[in-house]
Design brief:
Elements (H helix, E strand, L loop, with lengths): L1 E4 L13 H9 L10 H13 L5 E5 L5 E7 L8 E7 L18 E2 L2 E3 L7 H17 L6 E7 L10 H7 L7 E6 L5 E3 L2 E11 L1 E10 L3 E2 L8 H13 L9 H14 L6 H11 L2 H4 L11 E8 L6 E2 L2 E10 L5 H12 L4 E7 L11 H10 L5 E6 L5 H5 L5 E3 L19 E3 H20 L1
Parallel strand pairs: 4-7, 4-8, 8-18, 10-17
Antiparallel strand pairs: 1-2, 2-3, 3-7, 5-6, 6-19, 9-10, 11-15, 11-16, 12-14, 13-15
Length: about 450
């Protein structure tokens, strides 16, 4: 369902409110997914766009999830469109927060709340840039699309995937997408490099179930549903790690090595030696493992609720992240074999291979030219997954770019406790995003 909300020309321009104030308001809207609740967030963003005298469309999925689309017409000379994409939903907050997870509180130089880094801060930076170009009213080389989507945190089937399937005409002339996934590196307030994500791993999410006879907890039966599930998961978790260097990782780390300009033996060459000798884990820093192997995490376990009663069913959720060139079907066969014949496996989410976004496309060269005065731009490969994959699967270049130069550790609260963003880094990032969009859409 699509609902077009047309703003009247007489509506005054959006009041001059600080980006930090907008982020605080946005963070106070609980969009925990599940269930999502993106309608309130979409209404908040749409209202700000309407105050600028622009129209929006609310695109509601069959499951009732709201997505927001707005388009700034660049004029008769405009050639294609650039999409600014972020997601409105957030993961449900973990317990143990120092403040309310939806307070939007400002303290100690930070703005606190679920989504402060992932992904509402990026959304505000997109919105400010979008409204600024609308305010100027100057002709643009490209149309500019502001897209706020639902359901990214649980796979995007009610958000980006559904939009491209059901409303693909809205994106028919898309030249490139800017979205989350950028991984910049900063030390002591100084930016070392901009990491523009051009490739990522692929999701394979599974539900594994076991059935057995329910009964009393005092029995010696080891064929219960929980026991079967645990035995199967143990075999899976003990599967040997299989490291390899993909083309995507090679491009990323070779780019970093060129920046280092070191006379030492290239790190990737040392890594290949370690692969041959079986010592690769000694060469990898924390977090680097994820870029060289298919990872697997058991994230949900469900069985009984009472200590003296054996449940008849047990279930686990498994989050697998595949390297770009992994044969997903073959790995799934291996997983089923390890789990054993008594466990049923349901695929919840999977993605086909997709080509990396090109680094010779106009939008990427604009990123290099605009950002390069502050720090080098590196084509990066990330272990996470984003909605960029849905565009790449359709041959549309998508780039993960964060305008925020965050210190190491500032993202530790993402999907956890006490997520927050430096107010100074956030406000500087909003300025960076506006400058970048102005140049890349205006030329």
């Amino acid at each position: 369902m699509a609902l077009t909300l047309v703003a009247l020309a007489s509506v005054p321009a959006v009041a001059a409110e600080s980006p930090s104030g907008l982020l605080q308001q946005y963070l106070r809207i609980d969009t925990s997914n599940p269930p999502g609740g993106e309608a309130a967030a979409a209404g908040f963003l749409a209202d700000l766009i309407h105050r600028q005298g622009l129209a929006t469309q609310l695109l509601v999925s069959p499951g009732g999830r709201t997505n927001l689309y707005a388009r700034l017409d660049g004029g008769p000379q405009a050639r294609g469109a650039i999409v600014l994409l972020h997601h409105m939903d957030v993961v449900p907050p973990a317990s143990g927060w120092s403040t309310s997870p939806f307070s939007g509180e400002r303290s100690e130089g930070f703005i606190w709340g679920v989504g402060a880094v992932d992904d509402k801060s990026l959304g505000v930076s997109h919105l400010v840039a979008f409204l600024e170009l609308a305010r100027r009213g100057a002709p643009l080389a490209h149309d500019l699309i502001f897209l706020a989507v639902a359901d990214e945190e649980t796979g995007g089937s009610e958000g980006t995937a559904w939009l491209l399937e059901r409303h693909g005409d809205l994106f028919a002339d898309t030249l490139a997408v800017l979205t989350e996934g950028g991984n910049n590196r900063a030390f002591e307030g100084r930016l070392a490099w901009w990491g523009v994500e051009v490739a990522q791993k692929r999701p394979l999410w599974l539900q594994v179930s076991a059935r057995g006879r329910a009964g009393h907890g005092s029995t010696a039966d080891l064929a219960t549903a929980p026991a079967q599930l645990l035995h199967g998961l143990s075999r899976l978790l003990e599967r040997p790690r299989k490291y390899r260097i993909t083309d995507e990782a090679r491009v990323f780390f070779e780019s970093l090595e060129r920046l280092a300009q070191s006379d030492r033996k290239p790190w990737l060459e040392s890594l290949e030696d370690a692969l041959r000798h079986g010592t690769i884990e000694r060469q990898l820093a924390p977090g680097q493992h994820n870029l060289f192997l298919d990872t697997l995490q058991v994230t949900v376990l469900e069985a009984g609720r009472q200590v003296n009663a054996v449940p008849g069913r047990a279930r686990a959720m498994i989050d697998i992240r595949l390297l770009p060139d992994t044969d997903g079907d073959q790995l799934l066969l291996e997983i089923r074999d390890l789990l054993g014949p008594n466990l049923s496996v349901k695929v919840l989410l999977q993605a086909p291979p997709a080509q990396p976004s090109p680094t010779d496309a106009p939008i990427y060269t604009c990123l290099e030219r605009t950002l390069g005065s502050r720090a080098p731009v590196v084509p990066s490969f990330i272990a996470g997954v984003t909605d960029a994959r849905y565009f790449r699967e359709r041959g549309i270049p998508a780039y993960g770019f964060s305008p925020f130069a965050l210190a190491p550790g500032d993202a530790q609260g993402v999907h956890g406790v006490d997520e927050r963003i430096s107010q100074r880094a956030f406000e500087r990032g909003v300025t960076t995003m506006t400058e970048l969009v102005s140049k890349c859409v205006g030329e």
